[in-house]
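WARN no homologs supplied; continuing
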Amino acid sequence: MPAANVLVKYNKDKENDRRVYASFRRQQRNVYFLYIIASLMLCSLFGWFLHEQYHQEMSSAKSHSAARANTIGEWTKSVFSQSSQALLSISELIDIQGMPDDEAAISMAVELENRHHYAPLIQEIGLLDSQGRVLASSGSNRYRGRDLSNTAFFTALSSNQQQEIVTPLYWSSEDQAYYLHHALRLNDQQGNFIGVALARVAPQIFVDTISQMQFQSGESIALIDPTLRLIARTPQLDERTQTGTQLGGPITQGILNNGQSSWSNVRGLSLDHHERLFWLQRVDNYPIWVVAGMEMEQLLAEWRQRAAILLGMLIVIVLLGGWGVRHYVNRLKLELLLQQRLDEREQARAQAQAGEAYLQALIHSIQDLIFVFNTQNQITYMHVLHKEMTQEGEDSLVGKHYAEVFPGALVKRFDDVFEQVRWYRQVVTIEYPLKVRRGELFFQAVVSPLENTDGNFSGTLLVARDITEAKQSEVELSIAAAAFQAHLGIIITDAHGLILKANPMFTLITGYTQAEVIGHDPHIFSSEHQGTDFYRRVWRSVKKHGRWEGEVWNQRKNGEAFPGWVAVSSITNADNQLTHYVATVIDISERKSAEQEIHQLAFYDSVTGLANRRLFMDRLEVALKEVIRYRSYGALLFIDIDHFKQINDVYGHPIGDRLLKGVANQLTQQLRESDTLACLGGDEFAVLVPSLNADPVKAAQLAERIAHKLMAVIRRTSALINHSINISASIGITLLSDSNIDQEGYLQQADMALSQAKVKGRDTLCFFDPAIQAALLTSIHLERELRQALALKQWQLYYQPQVDVDGKVTGVEALLRWQHPERGLVSPGEFIPLLESTGLISEVGEWVLEKACYQLTRWEQSPEFCHLTVSVNLSPLQFQDADFVARIKAIFERTQAPLQRLKLEVTESLFVEARDNARDKMLKLKALGVRFSLDDFGTGYSSLMYLTQLPLDQLKIDQSFVQRVLTSSANAAIVESTIVLAESLGLDVIAEGVETQAQKAWLLEHGCRAYQGDLSGRPVPVDELEEQLTATQH
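OK structure emitted
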């Protein structure tokens, strides 16, 4: 009987059985449904009851914790109420009496102590002045003078951000303890800040108070500050509950994210690792929170016991109901079991017949190769539709092992595959080449395990498919895709030039998507940079030679023109007929920009855009040739912006750059096209005027006129950049002639002339003078020797005594001397300016200071000299160094000198510019114990304003006034005024250059009691000084 008829008959016989079985399934579903509904209702009832019980327990616990927190909060508020009253009473006292001075500080301490008696919960009350120093306190006097200006509460009060502050926990490094501070701003009648009233509260008072309270088992109370540090807690555990312990975890998020004054949550606290119910409540407006906790284990103990009993009852009821339902359903199953077994056997037989017939028909239509192997890997069945795809005939392969069929290299791969399929029951896909009757083909094989009815491994199924053509197509497609996705922009057109395809790189370069260009002519990318004749030549080359490449200016979608390197090729078919064009394009914008930038960087200044030194030298060389050829005079001008470095330092480099650009633009507008304006670096400009006049006098007059015009333009430049900066320029000029001087020679002449203009006071011009050149060469030679002086140990330190009224030596001034091997002692007036102009002053100045500090350290050990002070001169240029203070401190640390006997002498020129910067550095050094003396007072920028602002200890009257005090009434008046001024400012005064007894007597009569000069001793080396002092004492 055909398989299809067997199945039809079987289906008809089974129709009634399906109806019976369907009835059974309906009954079974109904029973299960009723059982589930009843069980869910019972579970819901039990769950609702337990849920209500849980919320009652939690509500009761929250109320209890809230009450606890409120009690502690009220008591904590009373502590700060006491401190607030004490601070207000201090404020009222200050309003009446004013801020006490140092003498009244003791009586103020008594007043504070009296108020402390009325505030027993406060540990100590104090009073701070406007500088943050402790004036008085109610407790020990050891805190007097302590500087609290760097504390956060003092900063907030002094800047008027707040009037009253209660701080978080504050760690006192001196007491090694935490405190809470309650601070109140104190103002005078005009509302100006005059100090701070401060109350200090010890956290121990909170610890003692809450420790005395009675708590339930599992209950805890804690106080924390805004930074989540622990103030107090009970019960106390170990160091985890010490004051200052940092808390974290979920409570942190709760406080930071919840802006309420009270808050509760169930969580695990990191202190004792117990789950608790927490109530968090802020103490009024103070930055303190009370945390009341109930241990969940204790809180829910009874509730959990009741829940366990109810849960047990529920489980028993549900299990009994399930057992009854299962018994009823099993009885229904047994009625159908026998009939079901008979039906299954008949159905299996019919399906086997139908399946076999269907499989045979299917196999004979399959193009793939099919092999079945037994457990010994021998072929038991094979299906090969085309015999040329095998190595041998079909009959000869059955019964053979695959090792007898495949080559050796392939056998090893199949060994691994068959093992994997057999032992891991996996389906494995492999690809392999095999040489068959048709030649070498590529196959893809799917190897699957076969199992018998018991589920045991019974063999292997291998289905192989010829994928040779697919492999070849895949390789060709991958090559084409790789080429099309290259970094080149590619478009393909038809034979008529209409675009068929464009790659992503082309879209990236031009901005056009593929959809926007398909069907269009490539002329849509043309720009106006190249005309129609250019494109005609391109297409003639393509048609003649089959390709063309070169630089083309195309246009992007946004209208922007860009340079591209384009290659066009024609594609023909087998009949040599044109089918397509392929064009590639590379965006060379970056390369063109880089070439332009390289040229700009090579020949032009990056800030001003003017010609740089390299281009300027080229044009100077051409100009010199023209001067010789036409026998006329030209001019070379060097321009330097006066005080440009200070402008940069004060206003910043962006303003400095804008100023240079403004100067460059203004100068350019004043010059001829034949003239060259260059920026040689920084603020140095050069102007080349190639032809002026054949007469040197007239040429010089014209050059001077040009220079004056340029100086006037520069003075007006500051207004153009919207800054009130008064600027000027110095200009050096040299004339170009037909002499034998080369380019470098003329540059040197202009530079020397510029230097001379600066010496004359700046904002002026100067022509080159050969005499100046000779002096400059001498200066250069001296500078070279100066640089070697320190290494060759040619520097020496001399000391000149400073004496009091009785002639007793109280100190010395360290003076630098240069012992030249050929010239002997060189005058300081000759080499000090050179040290400053060359920048060597910082290095030499630090050597002098270090040498003097070591001398102070040695004298510290000698009873004869331990009282001497040493004065050391500092140059204003040293203060300009950014790390000046750090380097001076390093000298002090190395030498360990007694700084209270060290005086640093500065001159008035230090305060002409950047006075605040100099003052800050002086204050930092003065904080170390160093004293400052103002040298040469009266000769420079004398101003009462800076005298009152600077941390000076002494004024030194310049010797130019002292030596004419007896012969000039004007000098006498200046000296007398200086002495009175110093006395009124509380400064010491010393006169230098005292050479006669008459001068000393006059100074003493007018109040000067300290002297320095040849009368008391000339500068001598330290050994000679010590001998003189020893002889004088004995």
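The chain is about 45% helix and 25% strand.
OK
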